[in-house]
Amino acid sequence: MVGLQILAIVIFVAVFTLATLRKVHLGVIMLAAAAGVGIWLADMEMDDIIGGFPVSLLVLLAGVTYFFAIAQQNGTVDRIINVVITRIGDRAVLLPFAMFGLTTGIAAMGAPLAGLVMMPIAMPLAKKYGINRTLMGIAVGSGISGGGFAPTSLFGIVTYGTAHSVGIDLNPLLLFVIALAFNVVLLLTAFILFGGLKLLKSPDRFDRDTTPRPGFATKDPLPSHPFEREGYTTRSRAVATTVLERASEAPPASTPMTLAQKCTVLCMAGLVLSVVAVAMVGLDPDIGILCFVFATVMTLVDPSTGRAAVAKIDWSTILMVGGIITYVGVLQTMGAVDMLGEAASSVGTPLLAAFIICLIGGLVSAFASTTGMLAALVPLAIPLVSGGDIAGWAVIAALGVCSSIVDVSPFSTVGATAVATVDEDERPRVTANLTRWGLSMVVVGPLAMVGALVLPTML
């Protein structure tokens, strides 16, 4: 039986590797592999295999991405960006923090990578102000990481949704607060290391007439990535190209908001207040259903944007996460997860085991899908907390944050997009800085998060 368990784990890793190298959809292969392994190795019925598909997570992801797709489709998101940038005025020292705040808000709207819309806006502003491009790239990247763990966004949904599915009690708001606080610390650190203090003393250098707005775009093709090899940055360059070509024609801030935009703002506020209110009374808010409820109101006000938003539901991520969790369910049935737990316990103390799994999450996520890592590693961390020596919520929260803060490296989508949106002569320097920063987070993240979250639960 142990041989079959090891074989199932090897197939799991092989599928992950094959999908990454061949650039095919991970969820499709993982579902097929789950069926094959479940039938031939675990002697499971097909109904039991398919029963492991996370339907509740599907509803959650579909509801969230649909709700915020409407907000983007009717121009509400662009209006918010426009207003904030206008309010900043010529205060250069505030720009990194403003970009962080805007990106956090956008990333909290369902899809963390939607925050990449700020990169081609933030980088030209950094150049005009004389702000270090590495600092600005980290500000946007940290906003994506922090906002991505909101109860309404993908990283958060996958992390606490997967944790709940395996019996680990993780409060969605607590997860968000932890991720946001740590990313604020990272931003402040980058502000000190990359010349932010000089902005307090130097005069502003801001040309109001050439300020990039949310409608900012360029018709020039994206420059080549400095470390690009075949297929290396295909996804990240595609994301950046979409952001640049999108160029949503956001009206000036002085233009009155449309009825649909006013309704969207009210629904966004209502969603946040509903989630907080339900959580405060001790209940577990079903964010997916709440999103569908408010999205229904928005759709009735403006049916055209509602129809267009259906196509923007993140079915790709739903399939990917569903495939991974389905396979992990097969591993759990076979006892492979318990076997890994026993192997982890042999490493030494639970604290060391938690550090190692966070290290693995950060290292792999620096080169692969953060969402995929979260869906795969969260269930595999269960044995670490089964003994009760450390708190499950602390391990899962630490793992989630450690898997996302490395995304600013140029080997990942966020970092590669940052490099692609700076001037050609600056790319080698920005690439080197982001590489050092991103890879240092592979070690710094686990040390800080395990020390701050996991260690206190053992005392």
UniProtKB/TrEMBL annotation:
Transmembrane spans: 6-21, 26-43, 49-68, 106-126, 138-161, 173-197, 263-281, 287-305, 317-340, 352-378, 437-455
Segments for region (Disordered): 210-229
Keyword Lipoprotein: no
The UniProt record lists the keyword Transmembrane: yes
Pfam families: MatC_N (PF07158)
Residue span(s) of domain Dicarboxylate carrier MatC N-terminal: 4-148
Keywords: Membrane, Transmembrane, Transmembrane helix
Descriptive protein name: Dicarboxylate carrier MatC N-terminal domain-containing protein
Organism of derivation: Citricoccus zhacaiensis
